[in-house]
Design a protein that fits this description.
alpha/beta, nine-stranded parallel beta sheet, 16 strands, 23% strand
Length: 426
């Protein structure tokens, strides 16, 4: 299949070099897809002449690019997104924990898993890394739904043995054993990756964090996801629970929960030592801007992406939108408040290749490049009257793209392809 439209791909990291050196844009481009992978990218006339027998799907002026990659989300919170008036700890107790209790019911888990993935697809998110609940069935539901849709997905059972309600606690041993069984069942099957998932330090005992570290060490191709430095109250709580640790990150270091493949959600309030340790260990950060604003956590420093792997994330449902466009817009706004206006190329990179790199999937997805899996989206850069009016005045690619980043929603997703097959969303 040949997809025709404008094409956008990365040849360098736009955090390090300017957009003109980082991005290749073809205003009349094409993508050749074969056997679920990108076979070639180039000028439309050239690829059409070289492959005259291929079926053609002409997207007009839509922008063809890699599908969005969401580095951190809580699929069980799909039903409580946009709940009012709480900060982190109150959010968990008031909204999250009661909702997660419902995932003991496999039918409920299956319904929300399907809804979550379909909402992702409608917004052009083709890969995500998700927290489940303590119930192994919540992982089975999400992995099964992703497998049925042909999706690349990372997910894991939350490990949580203290400071949580009865019915949402496992034990150090059962958390390890249940996770090990899920790894055996799902990790590496089709396009699925398991993520060892201690929720965060306050809800795991030292024994459970030790078990999580041992589990990851025994299964090093898995990811490891948790939370770090989200709110000041949380950091103080960690200090009381782990008085011997040098700081919040030091808790995870002690138990072998840092390094390549470890993804720390939020990481807003960091000491100089933590920043250096993240950089030196290759530990990644999931930047969750709508969540950080919605529950009042703080302003992430996007400059960390210069030396630390950083990917954008919706953080559904503390994050207030399923849209990666809205997530990019929030990242831009937070950057402005910190005195750093992120360029549209940087925002798109963080939502694709940057997030894929954070998840150690950067060789598979995240860029429009030959050999990558053909998880693609087409962006309509004139999806609403207001966006169309602004884009019509654009003199450059970035002036045309930026209004869609700032004002776009699911209407801007003109097409979604998963491993080369139309998803039916968009």
């Amino acid at each position: 299949m040949l997809l025709l439209g404008q094409t956008l791909r990365f040849r360098a990291k736009p955090i390090h070099v300017g957009p003109q050196d980082a991005v290749l844009h073809d205003s009349h481009g094409a993508v050749l897809v074969r056997d679920g992978r990108i076979a070639a990218v180039g000028p439309a006339a050239t690829l059409r002449a070289a492959h005259p027998g291929e079926p053609v799907h002409d997207l007009g002026r839509a922008l063809l690019m890699a599908g969005f990659v969401d580095a951190h989300a809580h699929y069980p919170q799909t039903g409580i997104i946009a709940s009012w008036g709480k900060r982190l700890i109150d959010w968990l107790e008031t909204y999250t924990f009661p909702e997660e209790m419902r995932f003991a019911d496999p039918a409920h888990a299956a319904r929300i898993a399907a809804l979550y993935l379909d909402l992702n697809l409608s917004h052009g998110i083709t890969t995500s890394c998700a927290y489940c609940t303590i119930h192994p069935g919540s992982v089975d539901a999400l992995m099964g739904a992703a497998q049925a849709r042909g999706l690349r997905l990372a997910a894991g059972k939350v490990m949580m043995d203290r400071n949580a309600p009865e019915g949402l606690r496992d034990t150090a041993q059962s958390g390890h054993d249940d996770s090990a069984a899920l790894i055996a069942r799902w990790h590496g099957v089709d396009r699925l990756t398991y993520a060892v998932t201690p929720r965060f330090a306050p809800t795991s005992s030292p024994a459970q964090l030790e078990a999580a570290g041992a589990l990851w060490a025994a299964n090093p191709t898995c990811l490891m996801q948790t939370h770090l430095g989200e709110q000041v109250e949380e950091i103080a709580w960690v200090g009381r629970l782990f008085p011997d640790a040098p700081d919040y990150l030091g808790v995870y270091e002690r138990f072998g929960l840092t390094g390549p493949g470890a993804v720390m959600g939020h990481a807003i309030h960091l000491s100089a030592r933590e920043i250096a340790a993240l950089r030196d260990s290759g530990t990644a950060i999931a930047h969750c801007p709508t969540s950080n604003a919605f529950i009042g956590s703080g302003l992430f420093d996007a400059g960390l992406a210069e030396t630390i792997p950083v990917g954008l994330a919706t953080d559904v449902g503390g994050g207030s939108s399923f849209s990666m466009l809205r997530t990019m817009a929030a990242a831009y706004e937070i950057g402005q408040l910190r005195g750093r206006a992120l360029h549209p190329a940087q925002l798109l990179w963080l939502a694709t290749q940057g997030a894929a790199d954070a998840l150690r999937m950067g060789d598979a997805v995240g860029n429009l490049a030959p050999g990558r899996e053909a998880d693609l989206i087409a962006l309509d850069l004139a999806s609403t009257p207001a966006i169309a009016e602004r884009a019509a005045r654009a003199d450059t690619l970035w002036e045309a793209v930026f209004p869609t980043i700032m004002m776009g929603d699911d209407r801007a997703i003109a097409g979604v392809w998963i491993a080369g097959r139309p998803s039916g969303s968009g």
